[in-house]
TrEMBL record:
Superkingdom in the source lineage: Eukaryota
SUPFAM superfamilies the record matches: NAD(P)-binding Rossmann-fold domains
Protein name: 15-hydroxyprostaglandin dehydrogenase [NAD(+)]
Gene Ontology cellular component terms for the protein in this record: basolateral plasma membrane; cytosol; nucleoplasm
Record PROSITE patterns: ADH_SHORT
Reactions the enzyme catalyzes: 15-oxo-(5S,6R)-dihydroxy-(7E,9E,11Z)-eicosatrienoate + NADH + H(+) = (5S,6R,15S)-trihydroxy-(7E,9E,11Z)-eicosatrienoate + NAD(+); resolvin D2 + NAD(+) = 7-oxoresolvin D2 + NADH + H(+); prostaglandin A1 + NAD(+) = 15-oxo-prostaglandin A1 + NADH + H(+); (15S)-hydroxy-(5Z,8Z,11Z,13E)-eicosatetraenoate + NAD(+) = 15-oxo-(5Z,8Z,11Z,13E)-eicosatetraenoate + NADH + H(+)
GO MF term set: 15-hydroxyicosatetraenoate dehydrogenase activity; 15-hydroxyprostaglandin dehydrogenase (NAD+) activity; identical protein binding; NAD+ binding; prostaglandin E receptor activity
Function text: Catalyzes the NAD-dependent dehydrogenation (oxidation) of a broad array of hydroxylated polyunsaturated fatty acids (mainly eicosanoids and docosanoids, including prostaglandins, lipoxins and resolvins), yielding their corresponding keto (oxo) metabolites. Decreases the levels of the pro-proliferative prostaglandins such as prostaglandin E2 (whose activity is increased in cancer because of an increase in the expression of cyclooxygenase 2) and generates oxo-fatty acid products that can profoundly influence cell function by abrogating pro-inflammatory cytokine expression.
Phylogenetic lineage: Eukaryota, Metazoa, Chordata, Craniata, Vertebrata
Pfam families found in the cross-reference section: adh_short
Length: 266
């Protein structure tokens, strides 16, 4: 996909990885809808982007992705504002083991919903001839995480869903590629959640263990995750792929055995 003049909707774009995604897409000539719950930080990011790229290139849309109507409205606003949608990045996420239902709601259910809504806007039967959806999972979607079991489950869910729906999208010739990104630890505000009892609950006493893991694996810069996003978007051959980003191997892909019933490259 050539990114110039494409329109992207990014959830959780006010800060952290989502903001880095927005920056990278704006640099490539895209228009971006920044969707986030955090109005103050989201509007500040939009103002900073206005100074660098001009006021017409981005829009901030306040939205709680865990609210179905809110999420549908955000897609509608972005589509109406820019006239189309080409790229959806389901990135908003939380780390909350205490109020764990919220973690499943935001990290998994809203990603599923964002994918379904994105497909409605972008599949061939609609007005666009090509589209891309990228779901943000985590390395915790591929390996166990002893002190974040629900976060881990939510991200495993994102990977299973993404690989499966990508096969369906290909089978239906929707013209929408769907992939996921799994970063290791990334230097964003979410890392502060491990310090908080209201986020960690039962696992609070293990925050040092998580810090030790960060020390061991290292912490990535959000700009590298954005580089991974651009790679997925620009390579039209990728569908149903799970990109991993780590300090020691950089950007690479999870390898899976071919499925016995897989009749074509999906
Ligand atoms: N930082 C890491 O170490 C790391 C590693 C792997 C994966 N991830 C994933 O990357 C994604 C982005 O995380 P981040 O590190 O940038 O975290 P972050 O906390 O810096 O940013 C998350 C953004 O999502 C927004 N958000 C949260 N709940 C929302 C909701 N209900 N509706 C709308 N917006 C909401 C927040 O306001 C925030 O702007 C998440 O899915 C996270 O799980 C992060």
């Amino acid at each position: 996909m050539h990114l110039k003049d494409k329109v992207a909707l990014i959830t959780g774009a006010a800060q952290g990885i989502g903001r880095a995604f927005a920056q990278a897409l704006l640099e490539k000539g895209c228009k971006v809808a920044l969707v986030d719950l955090n109005v103050e930080v989201g509007e500040a990011s939009k103002s900073a982007f206005d100074k660098e790229f001009g006021t017409q290139r981005s829009i901030f849309i306040a939205c709680d992705v865990s609210n179905e109507e809110n999420l549908k409205d955000a897609f509608k606003k972005a589509d109406q504002h820019f006239g189309k949608l080409d790229i959806v990045v389901n990135n908003a996420g939380v780390n909350n083991e205490k109020n764990w239902e919220i973690t499943v709601q935001i990290n998994l259910i809203s990603v599923i919903r964002g994918t379904y809504i994105g497909l409605e806007y972008m599949k061939n039967k609609n007005k666009c001839s090509e589209g891309a959806i990228v779901n943000v999972a985590s390395l915790a979607g591929l390996i166990p995480a002893a002190f974040q079991p629900v976060y881990c489950a939510s991200k495993h869910g994102v990977i299973g869903f993404t690989r499966s729906i990508a096969m369906f999208s290909a089978a239906e010739n929707y013209g929408v590629r769907i992939n996921a990104i799994c970063p290791g630890f990334v230097n964003t505000p979410i890392l502060q959640s491990i310090e908080k009892e209201e986020n960690m609950g039962l696992y609070s006493s293990h925050k040092q263990d998580i810090k030790d893991m960060m020390e061991f694996y290292g912490v990535l810069d959000p700009s590298l995750i954005a580089e991974g996003l651009i790679k997925i978007l620009e390579d039209d051959t990728l569908n149903g792929e799970i990109m991993k980003i780590t300090t020691n191997q950089g950007i690479h892909f999870q390898e899976y055995s071919p499925l016995p019933f897989q009749s074509r490259k999906l």
